[in-house]
Design goal:
The protein is an alpha/beta fold. It is 46% helix and 16% strand. The longest helix has 29 residues, at 105-133.
């Protein structure tokens, strides 16, 4: 297992799905984890209680689209961690799918605000701390959809492609301070969202995946842990695709 012993890491959107898997895996790797949630304190508390030594970890509400909420929440995290932060995982994200001509402007704005602006606001806070430390690692969760596009997901694809491009720019800006910024781009993942798909829908998806199955959330979490760790000390500006070989066909 990747060694993240005593590393202090913040994960956004960590109360369920891929985010919860990331939180649990980082804690198993030895990290002290703070994570945010938006509207499900019960789910967040459940994640905390599932961790060994839950008092070493923190969950807190945060609206990643609001600069004031991000700044206030980030200060709480810094206080909890004693003023240091080794890693940030920007996982908070939403979808509001609709065919383009039917897509409402609000649906476009909402997805960009959470997925892109939220990542921007958290990176801005974290890089200030990491610049003082002259070290740190940021992993932004993007998506295969940001690389390939997908009908009905123009807003989501745009947001994830933008995060990937922004991450490359930040890697260039902060490399001299030994701050690494990378992305993990999941493909199709076994989550609550995919459980509602019909057998026919799943078959169409898996026909595109050379490995013939969806990923498990912990496989995404393992990739995140690697990029946060010293094992990836010479990797920055990179997107690690966890997609079962989608681009090979």
């Amino acid at each position: 297992m990747t060694n993240l012993k005593d590393k202090k890491i913040l994960v956004t959107g960590g109360s369920r799905g891929i985010g919860a898997a990331i939180v649990k895996h980082l804690a198993q790797c030895g990290a002290k984890v703070a994570f945010t949630y938006t509207s499900r304190p019960d789910a967040a508390e459940s994640v905390i209680q599932s961790l060994a030594n839950p008092e070493q970890h923190l969950c807190l509400a945060m609206d990643v689209t609001k600069a004031e909420s991000v700044e206030q929440g980030y200060q709480k995290v810094l206080e909890f961690f004693g003023g240091a932060l080794d890693g940030l995982v920007n996982n908070a994200g939403i979808t509001k799918d609709q065919l383009f001509l039917r897509m409402k402007e609000q649906d476009f704005d909402d997805v960009l605000n959470v997925n892109l602006k939220g990542t921007f606001l958290l990176c801005k806070q974290a890089t200030k701390t990491m610049m003082k430390q002259k070290m740190g690692s940021i992993v932004n969760i993007t998506s295969v959809i940001g690389q390939t596009g997908n009908p009905g997901q123009a807003n989501y694809a745009a947001s994830k492609a933008a995060v990937e491009a922004m991450s490359k720019s930040l890697a260039l800006e902060f490399g001299s301070r030994q701050i690494r910024i990378n992305c993990v781009a999941p493909g199709f993942i076994e989550t609550e969202m995919t459980h509602i798909l019909t057998a026919e829908q799943k078959e169409k998806i898996l026909d595109k995946v050379p490995l013939g199955r969806m990923a498990y959330a912990n496989e995404v979490a393992s990739a995140v842990a690697f990029l946060l760790s010293s094992d990836a000390s010479y990797i920055t500006g990179h997107t690690l695709n966890v997609n079962g070989g989608l681009f090979l066909g």
